Amino acid sequence: MKKILRLFFLYILSTIFIIPSYAVDVANGKLLHDENCLRCHNESKYVREKRMVNNFKQLHERVVQCEIMAELMWFDEEIEDVTAYLNNEFYKFDMEK
Ligand code: HEC
After folding, report:
1. Could you tell me if residue 6 is inside a domain?
2. Ligand 1 lined by 30 (C-beta under 6 Å)
3. Using a 6 Å cutoff on CB, does residue 32 contact ligand 1?
4. Which of 34, 59, 62, 91 to mutate to test the pocket of ligand 1 (most atoms within 8 A of CB)?
5. 40 inside domain
6. Which of 4, 69, 75, 87 has an alpha carbon within 20 to 30 A of 23's alpha carbon?
7. By C-alpha distance, which of 83, 69, 91, 94 is closest to 24?
């Protein structure tokens, strides 16, 4: 009985660790951005002196807001990719904050 329990636990553990965590894809973010996000503003918005966005969290929220306005119906992964692309290319915030 103990052995079965142990096997069962091993099985549970392995399924938890095998589920792949989604890796952010910056190149995909750029593609999505260039195709969908330059309709209302261009990239100069991201580098102007008085930016609206001041940390990574705000950047993420702004991407969500703009994505809703643009009616794109993106998956969370796509939002993450575009946020990462904008951060990598323009904002360069510390991702932890
Ligand atoms: C329907 C028009 C529209 C579309 C499409 C749009 N945006 Fe925006 N975006 C805005 C407006 C309006 C602002 C605010 C501009 C201002 O106040 O100067 C803004 C601001 C931003 C900012 C903040 C800039 C700053 O000051 O730091 C980011 C980042 C941004 N948009 C990202 C995106 C992304 C990513 C997409 C594609 C998903 C997108 N936008 C598509 C209208 C749009």
Report:
1. no
2. no
3. no
4. 62
5. yes
6. 69
7. 83
